[in-house]
Amino acid sequence: MYQDKKESLRMYAGDLSGLYGMRDYTFNEGRAKGVRAIDMRNDKGLECTVLVDRCLDLSYFSYKGINIGLVNKVAISAPAFYNEDGLRGFLKQFNGGLLATCGIITSGAPSTVDGRAYGLHGDIGNLPAENVNKYEQVVDNEVALCISGDVRETCVFGENLILHRTICMRTEQNIIEVEDVVENCGFAAQPLMNLYHYNFGYPMLDGGAKCYFSAADVTPRDEGAKKQFEKYALMEAPEVGRPEECFIHTGGSGEQFAMLHNEKLGLAVIVHYDADRLPFLCEWKCCLAGDYALGLEPSVAGFWGLEHAIEKGIVKYIKPGEKILLKTKIEIADNVEVINQFRSKCKENA
Q: Is residue 54 part of a domain?
């Protein structure tokens, strides 16, 4: 929506919320009861739900009525149900969605460091935001829908970190930008292990869809992934009992991307990330029936957990008083030429 077009449309519609905008509400039943959410939609067919009480993460995500993000069996669950418990704490709360934020001080596998146990993917995704604001801003005549807020990850005798998040949905482009500023408000350096768990589900994810990566290198996580390495970029139909596979994409600098292309739908979704700040991208390929999912997950220090990151020297630290900017972006493309431009920047890998 261009600003000048917006003004002329008032002649036809006194309330433009029928065309685009944001709606603030609260879920009223089941495990989601009490969770505050904000729906965003532009006038191009892009719709997204932001979970205010779950780190301002992105839940339902669709384009022109086609589901793009992961909607799994756990569904939306209030943060009160979260219990940091090894693997199960996160998995029993993992509703999928388009984005599940992991971190701040740990992400990936559970681990124990200096006697303290850390669960899978950390706490940040189960913490509610405060100082939340929704507003419109105009950039180069284009209206953007924006939501901002703060999420605190704190512990007595431990960390005092704030995630300052801003989400902007473009109205003339099918783009959502997530900008995080992590601030260390304490007096000791803390690990910085943000991981952006972007997830995709049916029908965007389907047998025959393909992934493309701008990163130069890819390696399988384990022996199971090695056996399926030749098909790492080909999405297959779900199978009963099939184990998950993970592949690590690295290499390159500056803006990089990973793209899921569903030729049958004529759609592609592109995850943009800054490889200088987020040097690891995990491809989580889960063809397990009932848990069918694809994750494209840029991260600061991978998904092996805090103990591994320290041992391998890949953990980053945020100093007292320091602020670090981390940016990711989701783009939807339904133009063949645009999709082919992205494909041309990658080696044929499927």
A: yes
Cα gap 112→316, rounded to integer Å: 17
**CA pair distance 178, 291, nearest whole angstrom:** 26
Residues 210 and 267 sit within 8 Å (Cβ to Cβ): no
Cβ atoms 268, 262 nearer than 8 A:
yes
The domain of 135 spans 20-344
Q: How far apart are CA 37 and CA 27, in angstroms?
A: 8
Q: What mean pLDDT do residues 215-231 have?
A: 93
**d(C-alpha 9, C-alpha 20), whole Å:** 12
Instruction: Look at residue 8 and tell me if it is in a domain.
Output: no
Phi first, then psi, for residue 259 (nearest 5°) are -130, 135
Does a structural domain hold residue 303? Answer: yes
Give the three-class secondary structure for 261: strand
pLDDT computed for residue 1 by the predictor? 67
Domain-located, residue 5: no
The amino acid that residue 316 corresponds to is K
Burial 133-146 (b: 16+ CB within 10 A, else e): ebebeeeeeebbbb
Cα separations (Å) of 324 from 73, 182, 272, 273, 318?
35, 5, 18, 15, 8
Q: Give the domain CATH number at 118.
A: 2.70.98.10
pLDDT tens per residue, range 177-221:
999 999 999 999 999 999 999 999 999 999 999 999 999 999 999
Per the structure, the count of domains in the chain is 1
